[in-house]
User: What shape does this take?
Amino acid sequence: MRAMWQSAWILLAGANFLWAVNVVLARGISGEVPPITLAWVRWTGAFLFALPFAWGQLKRDLPDMRRQWPIMLLLAATGIASYNTMSYIGLTSTTALNVLLLQSASPLIIIVWAFLIFRETPTLRQTAGVLVSLAGVAAIAAHGSLQTLASLKINRGDIWVMVAIATYAVYCVMARRRPKVNPVAFLVALMGIGSVQMLPFAAWEWAQGASIHGGWPVYLAMLYIAILPSFVAYLLFNRGLELAGPGPAGQSMHLMPLFGSVLAVLVLHERFQIFHAAGIALIAAGILLASLTRLPAPRPLRASNQT
Assistant: This one.
């Protein structure tokens, strides 16, 4: 377990797998749960689940986080509240094919934000790795057909997802400025702040007559979303981001559509075809190419920060 906690790519791969399952479930229950309600329930549930585990460390680290409240508000708004709410709104009116392609733009957007905010210039190897993986995602999403790729249309849902991805890229870049506190306490604090930030919008949705339907299967899906893709996946991703930096962490997001295609084969019994193999090979090659770039050494953690 300790070795895994020091391996950026194992952590990032785990996070992206859990997020791929989240997309599948969220799309499946999109007609039963209003999108803002789903986002609010997700993070409120994750906060309540994780709070007992983090309570002692949270009390010790709270003064440090309060002193840096502007960055805490920014990270909660971009990484928790805005990103997930807009993503769920987008999932109600766009296709899975479009979402796969749009998600694959994450590494490029992260590189742009890193340049605009911190004037970081990506290496040629990082840029090439992103483009190679992007080609692999496109091959899978378009089923190996240039005609399918060319016929894609941008709709309202696509715009929501694009804005959500751009917002989350800000989180990935700015997370380096987070308070140097215990990672679990930090994540729980972010979830609590994000839940409060979403509450007025959820209340507006309820005032419009929105409600949850579908019975126990829907509630079980929401419980899964509140724990694994939320608390566990973000804990893995935040640690991977700390170890690898925003560029490689953004590159890892190409794994989400990769895992999504595998889930479609295993769960939905879709046929595994040649374009799947070609896309997987390109994604793996791009990640390998980008990861060959020397990564920054992980920052030392205080004894109180060990989990």
